[in-house]
Amino acid sequence: MLNNGYTFIADGRQYTVIEQLGSGANTVVYLAQCSHGELMTKCILKEYALHDNDDIEVGKARFIASGNMQNTIRQKSVLTNQTPPVSHVFEANGTAYIDVACYNGTTLDKLDSLTLPQYMALCETIAKTVGYYHKSGFLCLDLKPENIFIVQNAPDDTITQLVEFIDFDSIRDVNNGGNTLFSYTRDWAAPEQLNPYAATKISMAADIYTVGEIVFYLLIGRHSNDTEHRGFSRFPFEDCKSEYHKYSERPDIQALFTRLFRNTIRSSATNRFQTIDEVTKLLGALVELLNQKDYIIPILPSVSPDFVGRDTEIRQIAESLQTNHVLYLTGVGGIGKTMLVKNYIARYRTEYDVIAYLEYDGDIQHTFCDDVQLQISTVSRQDGEPLDEYFARKLKAFKRICGGRRVLFVLDNYTDRLTKDLSRIIDCGYETIIATRQKPSKNSFAVLEVGAIADTSELFRLVTLNLERTPTKEERLCFEEIITLIQGHTLVLELIARQIAAGRLDIHTALDLIRENGFSRFSGEKIGNIKDGEEVYDTLSAIISALFKASAVDNTARLTLKILALLNVRGLETSLVEKFFPTIQLETVSKLSAEGWLYDDNRIRLHPVIAETVRNWLWSADDVTVMDYHKKMIDIYAGMTNDVQIKEILREADIFRDKHPRHIITAMYYDMLGCYYDTLANGRYVPYTEEEAEILQNMFDSMDKAIKEAELSSDASSEKKLTGYYLDLASILIRSVPEEFDEAAELLDKVYDLIEENTDNHCYYCMVAAWYYTLAVPDIEETRRLTEQAEEIARQVFPIDLEIIDIIHIPTANCYFYHNDFRSAADKIEEAVEICRKYPDMIPYIDKQAELLNILLDIYTEMQDTARCRELIAEIDHINETYKEQGVCREVSPDKRNQI
Question: Protein kinase domain location, by residue (predicted)?
């Protein structure tokens, strides 16, 4: 082995070693400088390395023959570009050397920054190159990343259309592959290469295996194992690098990779593709899919390991969808419909090109248009775009992308009758599963009613999983009676087992509860066949409430569940729950999760049956605090512009208001109603249509009612809330009705004497006054003074940076923008961006950063700073590309992009 800087002369050429590049079974490779007369070049210098058991003369002869073979192969017209030329084969220093021309680039094993589409494009080129060898009468037999040279114009400019093979010691005639010695690398070799008794069976299939293994390694990050070498093997796509998931989770991509692996990395050569051309063709299709600009980003549901006893139903779903493109999956709440459909998706995902799984949130348009649930790579809702228009545009794009492909569309927890908008989706002709408690109208769609699990042994498996141990003999006898009394209802069974596991219940107490509250009053009739679903549901609620009460869960846990029951079916990120509801302790959430009352997998949510039950419980807090919880939840969904869920929370607030008819409670209700109309207005305070005018009028009416009720209240909290209502009204008047500027000024005067210094209302007052000196009586210095004072107060009273950005930075920048002080506006948003960058792992801050960058884009567009605009677009695109799967989607509008 030669040291760096070592120089020697052979055949009139001087070689100086620059660095060692690598080594193989019998070769060391160097980067060297070669001087030949006045010509000085860099080269790849390959040195034969003698091993202890080698015959040096035999080894050198084989090594020199490989150099000559390299030049022989280069003479083949189809392999000229794929074979680097050998400049010189010679002996020196007691061994042999091969001097090979040097190009810019590196070997495949040293590339670590390419995208999955780039890697697969290289694999397609590798397969094509192997095909050239096979057509020229050669086998490769020692393909591996170290032996594949990738040409690069620069470190960040890799050529994927050309590769060079750089080790020729194992190249053999296609008709003589197993009859002469050759070297190979165990990790990359086909099984027949490793078997000394199978040498005569070595053929083109060995190279086909190795190409498949290279693809597997680049995708998964490890070598395949024996269990992955079968015709029915499943592959661990979830183990890919996180940056590959946007591709590897797509069912169409998975299907192609699965087909590739099942026909290349097989133990038996006869089970592989017959020719490398089939591999090349499949890789070409894969590369085409990976480079598609339009595609559905897969957001597939996670599957619990606690799934038991539904194999028959899964087969029935598959059989039904073969003959009926729409299937209603019905059954009472908590019977296991969601778990069933999720496991159908997991089991059959490779059969589909596209899978869209949506959880119904109360409105089909809103559900379909939710860019967190259903993501299309090139489509997102633009600011101010009406929901119905976006629904039509998104559905059109969905149909375009899915044309001619096998698609599964799943709508889970659907609670409505068939609507016109749902019909528009169904009419696309995709295989559609609608999981619902309601049956469709008679003779309209195929129906599979999910009943109790019939196999008692499977139900005991479920008990064991939730107990986290095997039940005792006594427990087993009690569970047998419980199973009969609840007619195998899986949710109830899980809850009982979880309470026993947590030490909240003993089996005898649980049995007594079920004897009292079970389904026995329905006689022998199965609960799924009871015509009156409400009666069944009342019984479920009674059982759940009785279990909760008997479990002696404290009031803190009860209040936590009551608050969280206001969330929609998709729940909310744990980090947001923690920040917006500081009274909710994560320890309490963790205990409730362990006991089965809620799910907490970085997103807290309740089972719909439990949520509906909990909503019927009485609140364990005073009435003003309860309404504050409703308002806080509405504020969260207002930030998401989710008017559908706000409407649901309002319904709950209205029920509570009826039971607590005090002026302050009514005032708080109308304040929330105003927030709903404000969300519908979406910042359009100057109406251009009749619909916008009606929304604005409803908002003013709600504000007036909130103020009047608060003025009549003698509650201790009424003055503070009234002050807030005055400020809200003044803020809207200033931004919407110029002729009402005087009324806004009167409201500000009225508020001035009511506010306490350094409180949240004091902060709001300063910001509303800043708007007054921006739009009503323009005075930039007064605006600046007020916004600076507001920010100073905000930092004392608002603990969350996200709130400060929304309350201070964005409106302050807007004020400066209206004053035409674009530099100050940009600086304020840049400051907020830096705040967001302090939270690189928190999605809400990453999403806010993307929103802020879009605001900056508007400002710099106005400043005509095109270079900065291009930088911002690139940064926004990068954030969307990186975090779209986590729901970050703040696209630049096409018009703005074209303008810049």
Answer: 15-328
- As a whole number of angstroms, the distance between CA 841 and CA 185 comes to 41
How does DSSP classify residue 540?
H
SS (H, E, C) 360-406: CCCCHHHHHHCCCCCEECCECCCCCCCHHHHHHHHHHHHHHHHCCCC
Distances, alpha carbon 196 to alpha carbons 178, 208, 264, in Å = 10, 19, 21
Number of CB atoms found within 10 A of residue 200's CB: 10
Please enumerate in sequence order all residues whose Cβ is within 8 A of that of 749, keeping only pairs 6 or more positions apart, or say none. Answer: none
Q: Which SS3 state, helix, strand or coil, does residue 660 take?
A: coil
pLDDT tens per residue across span 484-523: 888 888 898 999 999 999 888 899 999 998 988 877 655 4
- Quick one: angle between helices 810-818 and 780-797, nearest 10? 180
3-state secondary structure 428-454: CCCEEEEEECCCCCCCCCEEEECCCCC
pLDDT value at position 235? 94
Closest among 852, 817, 821, 810 to 834, alpha carbons compared: 852
**pLDDT given for residue 535 in this prediction:** 64
- Write down the CATH superfamily of domain 7-101: Phosphorylase Kinase; domain 1 (3.30.200.20)
CATH topology assigned to domain 311-449: Rossmann fold (3.40.50)
Q: Which CATH class is domain 105-292?
A: mainly alpha
Report how far apart the first and last C-alpha atoms of the chain are (Å, whole number).
Answer: 58
Residue 171 pLDDT = 81
Q: Are the C-beta atoms of residues 104 and 157 closer than 8 Å to each other?
A: no
Position 54 scores a pLDDT of 62
**Alpha-carbon distance 349 to 235, whole Å?**
12
- Other beta carbons within 10 Å of 430: 22
Strand pairing class (354-359; 7-10):
unpaired
The span from the CA of 361 to the CA of 568, in Å, is: 7
Q: Element (H or E) spanning 531, and its range?
A: none
The helix/strand/coil state of 163 is strand
- What is the pTM assigned to this prediction? 0.72
pLDDT in tens, 737-777: 788 888 899 999 988 888 888 899 999 999 999 999 999 99
User: Cα separation of 760 and 410, whole Å?
Assistant: 45
Does the structure show a pLDDT above 70 at 370? yes
How many Cα atoms occupy the beta-carbon half-sphere of 36 within 13 Å? 11
Residue 145 CA neighbour count, 13 Å, CB half: 19
Identity of the residue numbered 515: R
CA 721 to chain centre: 40
User: Count of H helices and E strands in the chain?
Assistant: 35, 21
Contact 423, 364 (CB under 8 A): no
DSSP state, 693?
A: H
What is the rounded distance in angstroms from the CA atom of residue 809 to the CA atom of residue 801?
10
Q: Which two tokens stand for residue 314?
A: 């899964």
> Do residues 631 and 728 touch, judged by C-beta distance below 8 A?
no
Which pair of tokens denotes residue 86? 């050998």
Domain range summary for the chain, segments of one domain joined by +: 7-101, 105-292, 311-449, 456-552, 822-900
In whole angstroms, what is the distance from residue 605 CA to residue 590 CA?
Answer: 12
CA nearest 19: which of 90, 108, 102? 102
More confident residue, 156 or 744: 744
Angle at 36 between CA 31 and CA 41, to 5 degrees: 35
Distance in angstroms (rounded) separating the CA atoms of residues 145 and 165 = 10
Average model confidence (pLDDT) across the chain = 88
Residue-wise pLDDT for 817-830, tens only, equals 999 999 999 999 99
pLDDT above 60 for 295: yes
Of the candidates 263, 201, 257, which has an alpha carbon nearest to the alpha carbon of residue 229? 263
Return phi, psi of residue 252, to 5°: -65, -40
Which of 304, 440, 300 minimizes the C-alpha distance to 359? 300
Question: Side-chain half-sphere of 5: how many Cα atoms within 13 Å?
Answer: 0
